[in-house]
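Team,

Forwarding the record for the chain on the shared tracking sheet. I've put the sequence and predicted structure together so nobody has to dig through attachments.
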Amino acid sequence: MSTRTILGSPGKLSKPFLAIVGFFLVLLIGALDTITGYDLSVSVLYLFPVMLLAWFAGAVPAVLISIISAVTWAVADVASGHIHSDGAILVWNALMMLGIFLVVSFTTAAMKKSSISERGHARNDYWTRVANAGYFYEQVSMEIIRSARYNRPLTIAYLDIDNLKQVNDSFGYSTGDNILRAVVATMKTTLRSTDIISRLGGDEFAVLMPETKLEHATAATHKVRDQLLETMGKNGWPITFSIGVAICYNPTCTAHELIKKAENLMYAAKNSSKNMVKFETMDW
């Protein structure tokens, strides 16, 4: 088994590895608990492996380490020479410790879930659940730096939904919302998983295509447009799409400049006849 398999992907430790670390931490704390004796309590230290697993591995591993911690605490209590007037007292105390560990486990896991959810809301568009404008600009800026460093091209496609206002006026805003979601669903199934889709506002979307040169950008954009038109036709929606595509080689521009270039190309397509795609390559 490779080190990567044990540790998981870079920057993220695997659950089995964390479980092993947590288990040995509990044993270490148990040994310390035994040495210090029952007069000097170190019980609070058991919360560290419990919280560690709850945050990084989830509730289930945290529950398991909570049980192990409670049992270890009870064993250490006996091994340290603590004599109880009744064996039931030891069991009761161990159950109380377990209860505390479980409360901490579930609370910590819930906090982690809430934190992830909040980060998702901060970078996603509310209605379509794709990247919002702020997050998209961040990703484009990062990709520009990476592309310049490794001399790789990148592409920005800027898409506008033609006639959406008329559809909203004729069929209602609920239909407009369905169109937005259908556009996102179609793009997700057509584009690569590495491409980043963003709703920049209203009826405008953008797509970041890393390491994509002109021929690949042309094929991908036309494929997306064809699939979108097919989806609109199946639903009886009189919708078309105007798309501007900026392909950048050796980028030295900013994210704002690159996205603005794609937006201008989209408007050129829209002002020409709508329902068309305009491409332009750049070397700046």
